[in-house]
Amino acid sequence: MFRSPSTRASAAVLAALAAVPLLAGPAKAQSEDAAGVVEDLHFFVESLDGTETEERSETEVTVTLTSDVLFDVDESDLTAEARDRLASVAEQIRSEGAGGVVTIAGHTDDQAGDSYNQDLSERRAESVRAELAGQLSDVDVSFETVGHGETQPRVPNIVDGQPNDENRGKNRRVEITYDVQQ
After folding, report:
1. What is the pLDDT of residue 35?
2. pTM for the full model?
């Protein structure tokens, strides 16, 4: 669950929804009798300020942090706020992670060239890996990093033929994915 104060209410809502899975939202249903069976439940929670999201299934969690809170513009060195945010993510992995591989994926918006964005996304993923590895040195996990540059936007960078700064901000992100204990 999120640890930051701005998302405590969202975490409470997520916990409440988990207790009522048939009302919780998108799910694949497999009908064996009149009641059916719910499989592959997914939850999505966004922080009130839009800088952090969490997508959760029965087996996996992806925490997404916008690059604007992790890095200065065109930089791959973590900010002080980033270290605090990543400490929360590390604690979350420590308390609910199942071990194994933690995948860290860096993404950019469409500004600058393809090769620049690819390199920047790789360097940012590596910075997050280094920080989490230090904070999780006592946990049995390994890390995999990947940079996607601008190739996997969450939302269009251009809307109605015009650059959209809000969307670009959502596309500049780092995604941290880990398996949860069953």
Report:
1. 65
2. 0.79
